[in-house]
Amino acid sequence: MAASGQVILVVDDHNDTAELIAEMLRMEGFTSFATASVLGAVNLYERSRPALVITDEYLAGSTTGSDLLRVLRRKYGDAVGRALIITGLPDEISVLSTDVVLEKPLDLDRLVAVVRALLGGPPAARQAQR
Known about the structure:
- This protein is of the alpha/beta class.
- The protein has a single domain, classed as Response regulator (Rossmann fold, 3-Layer(aba) Sandwich).
- The chain is built from 5 helices and 5 strands; from the N terminus they run E-H-E-H-E-H-E-E-H-H.
- Strands 2-1-3-4-5 form a 5-stranded parallel beta sheet, with helices on both faces.
- The chain is globular, with a radius of gyration of 14 Å.
- The chain starts with 6 loop residues before the first strand and ends with a helix.
């Protein structure tokens, strides 16, 4: 497991999208887990206690990424770390439910930059900056 604060959970009902983002983050030095369901997200959260949750806003059914974050915060309180929501409709997101909103289409370079800003970068990146 990565150093404390470097685990990221990626949630998107399009599993290929979640896996792509998680793999890209792994290539950047983060430990990341991907899931396509809210239940999977809650289970992965319980096991990995990520410092950052990245979620699509509109998930399968009527569930939203904002709903997922509320469930996690209700269950784990202040232990829930940072949150980033990806959406095509940024005006519909409550600023209280997330730290950052990224608009679709997603720019992967921007995503990595935002993740680094939120988490301070993976251990290798921090050492290279010294």
